[in-house]
Design a protein that fits this description.
129 residues, mainly beta, OB fold (Dihydrolipoamide Acetyltransferase, E2P)
Length: 129
């Protein structure tokens, strides 16, 4: 899925190493919809950005700041890791974002225009209800 929005929150970057010794980095960030249909209630999405191995640098060197407009490609699913001790306790992993790029040609002040001709409505064109 794709989403274009303005970054409104960014968590601190977490880093570590896998059992194989590869570096990993992870952060969460929140986007608010640009140009929502209802300005009072924009869509908001919380995404997780996790990278390891050769892609580690993309999350570790996350260069976007609060207020930046970005295009995001992500998988629309949530995973749950359950502890193996039988307790049923676990942790949910949010929607995994796999690509973040700077949004290009974003009009933050959209305007609407009527295009084409207007047609006079005849009485035969009206619906009976």
């Amino acid at each position: 899925m794709n989403f274009t929005g303005k970054i409104t929150e960014i968590s601190p970057i977490k880093t570590g190493k896998t059992k194989k010794g590869d570096n990993w980095a992870s952060l969460d960030f929140e986007l608010s919809e640009l140009n929502p249909q209802n300005a009072e209630y924009p869509q908001v999405v919380l995404l997780s950005y996790f990278k390891s191995g050769e892609h580690f640098k993309y999350a570790n060197e996350f260069s976007y700041k609060l207020g930046d407009a970005v295009d995001v490609e992500f998988n629309f699913k949530v995973n749950k890791y359950t502890k193996k001790d039988g307790s049923g306790e676990g942790k949910f992993y949010k929607n995994d974002c796999w690509k973040v790029t700077k949004a290009e040609n974003i009009d933050t002040n959209p305007h609407f225009e009527t295009v084409g001709e207007t047609k006079e409505v005849e009485s035969d064109d009206l619906l009976p209800f």
